[in-house]
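Reopening this ticket.

The earlier resolution said the output was attached, but the attachment link was broken on my side. Pasting everything inline this time so it's all in one place.
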Amino acid sequence: MKENPKNLPVGISDFKSIIEEDYLYVDKTEILYKLINSGKYYFLSRPRRFGKSLLISTLYHIFKGEKELFRDFFIYDSDYKWEEHPIVRLDFNTISSDNREILEKSIKKRINFIGEEEGIEIKEDELIKDKFSELVNKLYEKYKQKGIVFLIDEYDKPIIDHLGRGEEELKAAEENRDFLKGFYGTLKGESIVSRTRFVLLTGVTKFSKVSIFSELNNLTDLTMDERFCDLLGIREDEIDKYLIPHLEEFCNEKGKDCNELREELRNYYNGYRFSSKDLRVYNPFSLFSSLMKMKIENYWFETGTPTFLINLIKEQNIYIPKYESFEATESIFSTYELSRLSVLPLMFQTGYLTIKGYNERIKLYELGFPNKEVRLSFNENLYYEWSELREDTKFREVGLSFEDGDTDKAIEIIKSIYSEIPYTQMRKDRINEAYFHTIFYLILTASGVNIRTEVLNYKGIMDMLIETKDRYYIIEFKCNQSADKAIEQIKEKRYYEPYLNKGKEIILIGINFSTKERNISEWTCSKA
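Inline output:
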């Protein structure tokens, strides 16, 4: 009799519960074994819902020496020495951080709680650094001088929770940062270093060593370390090893072909790449949610919109279409000062951009959206922010119209959307070709159509390419000029040439925007 596949641990981040309640665990202990034995001080940045808390929990039970929990996994039969170590575990998801004073009190409370659990008395009125050192010293004595393990989850939550909410909240973020800078610095104190077995800090953002980690500058940053790039996330071969029964159940239930389902899942949830090594992983939360609910939807984005990031993009008037694909050096991957946040590193750190390619010779990274889930959800959210049409659903018809070859209908819907954008959004200081182009782009990407922007050929750069099952649409934009001039440019630059003889109809579209009318004033199309 065929066994039912194990339940998927959606929303469960406690390793012990997963094992004891017989949920599926994708074995990462071979990588953890290498991590534990190759160093001592680590930092890891990954997007939310990527398994950071489960990683912390797994390490906790390893260092607690609970070998039997790992009976079915790599580390059980390795030469790892199963000893119980004292552990200081701080989860900033559960630590209040409304302001610096509350943050300090909350951490003190957590230190007291660890002491109570361990039967250690901690003095009440000491400074937090002294309180922390006292806990460490007494744990070291209690466990007969075994090295202490420090596991700190979501280290940056007291900072990023305050971003994008105005000047007062920014001040709270800066005060929390300054406090944490000193607190984390205690881990480098001589008395603590000599008693340390292992340190791991996880978070979403990677602040540079000149800010929050200036006093803790001995951390090995795993964020883009190719040795550990698949520590979190699901690889293709792990799907083959662990998830085939779930794929088959999905296919049987919905009458799908398994190869087609696999390709859909890959397009929607795969594509995250965290180093120069060409290894891509699936978002585990989205993949597991889809297999559990037997439905391909946008799951990750629904778990929390990055308000501060959306606000930053609006404030800095970022040209959104460039996120489809652009190149950058490694320096882009660090976030620096809170008062001068840069959108691009935050986009990478929070999971909205990923590495699409790497040129080893010139050390240049190509970045873009990781997959369809992120691309659709992010751009839909931005569409609502840019247009302020929060009740609008007409944009969903635009993609269908292009799929059906009904260009007239698609353009008329887009014109009607422009006409409904509030006057406050159509300010004179932002009405230009880039603004109109951005709205056009957001409408199309949010509708689900497959587009590329600023496509190079040997004679120039076309503004936009739409590809459907049966057609290519080549689009050129003009502002306060004419649609005919846009068509002339397409023909003169021969933007259509790479798509000839591919078995699809090629439609050329010229569009002119009018700043006076705040809309498409004219458009024309022809065949290549």
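Reporter confirms the inline version is readable. Residues 233-386 form one domain. The chain has a mean pLDDT of 90.
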